[in-house]
Amino acid sequence: MIERHPLQPFLPRGAKVLFLGSFPPPRQRWCMDFFYPNWINDHWRIEGLVFYGERDYFVDNMHKTFRLEAIKEHCRQHGIAFYDTARAVRRLRDNASDKFLEVVEPTDISALIAPLSALRAIVTTGEKATETICLRMNVPQMPAVSQAVNIPGTSLELYRLPSSSRAYPLSLEKKAEAYKLMFQHYGLC
User: For a designed S-S bond to 55, which of 45, 64, 150, 170 qualifies (C-beta 3.0 to 4.6 A apart)?
Assistant: First the structure.
């Protein structure tokens, strides 16, 4: 069964970085209708630590969800955009693992970034998204984790961060350090 992307791109005016993941997890794992919706994914805890010094800044522990309006306002204020590298996929297993995603329709990344005149970087947090961007944007070599490479034919960089998944073997604090360096590099914090 082919699954179409359930979200529209989040592209605030003045966005300087665009996070491109692979594809959202299955809907039953969501706790909100936005990017990085899985309660056990630490993306929003990392951004809470980086920008506000508080891992639970965007967390609503009572309802086991994230504070969506606070997240959107934060992203608008700091110029952080979100979407994914696939518009349609086939899940080869019923889970959120990128390893078992078959991309049926890739995102037209050039069209996606065209209106983002302040954009400085595309940021990935996973190998599949990084590989997809390298293929689609003719990037000759994947960047190492916490490194950036130039995207040929553009003034943009492709910056790869450690995954915010708890399955990635790095502490939340170490991930936050890596994310903070990236956000500082592009003048967001």
Answer: 45
Measuring CA to CA, which residue among 142, 155, 7 is closest to residue 82? 7
Closest CA to 83 of 22, 146, 134: 22
pLDDT at 109: 96
User: Which 8-state DSSP code applies to residue 38?
Assistant: B
Instruction: Record the tokens describing residue 52, joined without a space.
Output: 């506000």
> Given this structure, which CATH class describes domain 2-184?
alpha beta
Each domain of the chain, given as residue ranges in start order, spans: 2-184
As a whole number of angstroms, the distance between CA 67 and CA 139 comes to 36
Q: How far apart are CA 29 and CA 53, in angstroms?
A: 27
Quote the tokens at residue 18: 């665009």
Structure tokens at 114: 């065209």
For CA atoms 136, 86, 119, 131, give the dihedral sign. Answer: negative
| Cβ-proximal residues to 123 (8 Å cutoff; 6+ apart), any chain | 17, 18, 19, 20, 158, 159, 160, 161, 182
